[in-house]
Every structure is written in C-alpha cells, then in structure tokens.
Design a protein that fits this description.
Layout (H helix, E strand, L loop, with lengths): L3 H24 L14 H9 L2 H12 L2 E3 L4 E4 L2 H8 L6 E2 L21 H16 L6 H19 L10 E2 H18 L5 H4 L6 H15 L3 H7 L16 H17 L15 H7 L4 H32 L1 H13 L6 H4 L3 H13 L9 E3 L5 E3 L2 E3 L4 E3 L4 H5 L2 H4 L9 H5 L2 H11 L13 H18 E5 L6 E6 L1 E13 L6 H4 L4
Parallel strand pairs: 2-8
Antiparallel strand pairs: 1-2, 3-5, 4-11, 5-8, 6-7, 9-11, 10-11
Helix pairs in contact: 5-12, 6-7, 6-21, 7-13, 9-11, 11-13, 13-16, 13-21, 14-16
The chain binds protoporphyrin IX containing FE.
Length: about 500
Amino acid sequence: MASPLVLYALAALFLYAVCRVAVKWFRLRHIPGPRYHGISLLPLVYKCWRGRLHEDLRKLFDTYGPIVRIGPNEIVCNDVPTMHRILGSKSPYNKAQWFVIARLNGDGDTVQSMFDKEQRSTRMAQVLPGYAGKDGQSFEGCIDRAIASLVHLIDTKYISTGTEFRPLDLASRFGFFSMDMVGEVAVGQQFGFMAEDRDWSNILHTYDMMLPIIQILGNYPWLAKMTYRWPISLLLPKEGDGTGFGAATSVYMRVIDSRLSQQAPSPKDTKPKHDMLQSFIAHGLGREELKHEMSLVFLAGSDTTANALRAAFLCLLSNPAALARLRAEVDGNAGAGTSAHVNTLPYLNAAVHEALRVYPSVSSSLFHKEVPARGDTLAGRFVPGGTSVGTGGAVFAVCRSRAIWGDDADVFRPERWLEADEGELAEMEAAWGLVFSVGQFRCLGKQLALLALRKVVYELVRRYDFQAVDPARPASFFSAIVWVWQRFEVRVTRREGQRSSSTAMAGL
Ligand code: HEM
C-alpha cells in the first residue's frame, strides 16, 4: 500500500495540473473553436499527423468564423486585412516560440529563427542583398543553367514514343531541379541531382520523412529545444554524415571553406563569384553563420519551388483548355524566354499565380506570431498578449475562400486574374500575397521563385506534351508544413517541330 504522503502528493499534482489547464482554457474562453482544442494540444497534433491540417483548418473557419482557437494558447485568423496588420513591416508582433524548429542545425540561428528583433534586423541587413540579387548575381543565368540540365535529362532519358514508354516522375524530378537551381544561385554550382538523376544523398527523402515530425515538434517548442541538447543532439544530422542533411551540408561547407580561404573551388575557376554565398561573406558572415544561413537557403528555397512546379503541372494537366491557351500564348510569342519576355506573358503569369493559389506551396505551416504584451483586437475579439497566432495556418483557407474567389474557388482557372477589375484584383492580390507572407515576415526568395516558375513552365510547355500516366489519380501528396509529394508520373512526348536539347540548348 502506498503511504498517505505519496497519495497526497499525487492528488496535489493532479489538482495542480487541472488548475493549470483550467486557467489556460479560461484565458481564451471567448475565442470560438472546438472545446477540446482549448484544453490540450493533442487534437491539433492529431490533425497534423493526419496530413490534412490545411483542410481541417479550412473547415474550422467555415464553422467558427474568422478567428478560431486551435490550442490552449494557440489561435488562427483568416481575416486578410488583420493578417496583413499582424505581418506588416511596422507590426509589434514577433515570432512565437514555434520558430524554435526553424533552428535548422540546432547549434545556431538563422534569420528565420531569431527572436530578438535587433539581432534579426542586423542579420537581415547582411543577407538581404544576397537574396535580392543586389551584389552582381545573375539569378536568371543560374535558372537557365538549371533548366538546361532539366531539359537535357528529359531529352536523354524520358521521351516516350509510339514504341517506347519512359514514364517520368515529376514529383521527384522537380525536387532535383529545385535543389540544383538553388545550388546554382546559392553557391554557384549544381549538386548533381539532375546529372545523376537520383537523390544521391537521400536528402529529399529524409526531409520528406522528417516533415511530419518537425510539424508536430513546432507545437512543443520545449521538446524541440530538448532535441538540440546533449545527448539527443548526437542524433541530429551533422557535417560529414554519409547521407541526409549532413551529406548535403558537407558539400556546401566545402565550398564555404574554399571561399573563405579565398581559393577558387576548382583550379580552372578563377573568376570572381557572384552568388548568395559571396554576398553573405561580403556582408560579414563567418563560417558558422554561413553554415546556418546556407541551410536555410536550401530548405526554404527548394521544396517550396518544387511544390509550385508540381502544382502548376498538375493544374495544367487537369485543365486542357488552360493548357491550350497557355500554349497558344507561348507559341504566338516566340521569344528567347528571358525574364523580360516571360514576365510580360499575361496568361503564363496568371497560370503561375493561380497554381500557387490552388496549392500554396507552404500548405499548413502555422508560422505562429506572438501577440504583443498589451494584447490586440483581432476580427472583433480581444486577444491577450502572449497568445500565438498561426498566420501560416490560414493561407490555404484564404486561397480557397469562396467569399474571395467565388463559388469556383477550388477550380484552377487562370482567367480569373485577367477578368478581374482593378478593385477585385487588389483584393485578390492581398489574399494571394499571403502565399509568400508579407511585411517583416515575408519570403526572401519570392522574386527568384516566381522567375524560376515562369521560366520553367514556359520552357517545358513549349517543348513537350505531358500526359498523366494514371488519369484517375495523377498524383499523390499530403500536407506536413509543405505538400509532401509521393508520386506524379507523366508520359512525355516531344512536341512537333521541337528540337532535342543537344541542338536546342544554345537557344535556351
Ligand atoms: C514558391 C516558392 C516559395 C514560397 C511559396 C515561399 C513561401 C514562404 C513563406 C510563406 C515564408 C514566410 C513565413 C513566415 O510567415 O514566417 C517564407 C520565408 C522564407 N523564404 Fe520562402 N517561399 C518560396 C521560395 C523561396 C526561395 C526560392 C527562397 C530562397 C532561395 C526562399 C527563402 C525564404 C527565407 C530565407 C524565408 C525566411 C524569411 C524570414 O523569416 O525573414 N523562399 N517563404
């Protein structure tokens, strides 16, 4: 029999736990939402685990209105003007502890994981010129070289004919393209994903496997912090590993070390470098800071871009009329496919916008921001200071809102961007802008990503015909922060009159 002292202690502990839950629940009792979400984070964790958080949150908004409680201290809001106010450049909101998971290597911060506003603005000043291409980089040249590799890969391995079937999985190949493109932009070289036509370090597979776990950890920052401490930290990927993040880190650390010691990466290559890395170095980042910021460039830039490309092609294959109209525009405007050219093609731009609206690349990342100490009124309800508002969690719901986009909100219809009048367009742009976030929390790679998307869609639509291998279920993917694509197989044929890459490459 347990002694009465132990029983008293257990009873006191239980009472304390109940009081804590009650106090937390009471604080936000006026925010609508399912009752059980106010008591524990477990219902939210379950929704994350199911891989359908984007849809679940959309349903919650439909049921409870523009502001919904999703945890004891967590809410989401899908009112567009309110989200712009929270994210705005002068907003007093800060990153909430959720961003502990953005500390990618565990032993240091990136511009995305810094909580101290002053420290963050110093780092921002150091990295922004690199992301904006202000230090002599030619992002366009980098994108073109990556597209040339992709076209070469398709031409040499994946063209089907009447007698030969060579299925191409766009899910993985757009992943390879994006890693290599970001490699070009970040450190001036491709990483060989397209050249080897495989995930040679298993990084993409590892990342996809980790995303559901990372998404759940975001709800428990204390647990995320524990994983960065000894002994669990020993299990984290590190430079020198044979596979996964560690192997990829080793590749760019070699480039970083070589640049820092001012040796050219290859004996033949003595030209001055104009890439993000060189810009970061020029603005004063040291080896460790470069390691963290480069990890961010790759993780923030590759899967998001790949997802947008996958979405664009899935949408185009699902809407033959849109594909035909895009083709007509591309064929009728024969040009070099330069940025100056693709940026002025209205239907192409509308199609890229629309694909990102239907499938916003960051599909269900809560990206919590913390309400300032004095509290704030959101969508008509007072929210006390310290509450976490998941600004990212509402993006999918906003992008598919019937109130904003009409009854066909779920349909990929690029025409909506061309038919809208000035007032409607402003409202649509404000909602769509959340796909890349805005203000002080905006995506730093937006212009690069949009240019890459326009150029890739232009080149592939111009050169090839695509057919879904399984028309009933062309692709499969679920949501864990971003969309995690498992499969998207197509049959590719060369369009009549299109040359193979060996003869056409010079014209890219
Ligand atoms: C379609 C492509 C992309 C989408 C939809 C996208 C979306 C986003 C979103 C929603 C955020 C903000 C999160 C927040 O509220 O805190 C973000 C942040 C960020 N993105 Fe992107 N992104 C894309 C491509 C890229 C690329 C290509 C790069 C770089 C090469 C990049 C670099 C970053 C960085 C560094 C941040 C962190 C900004 C900060 O916290 O200050 N992104 N992105």
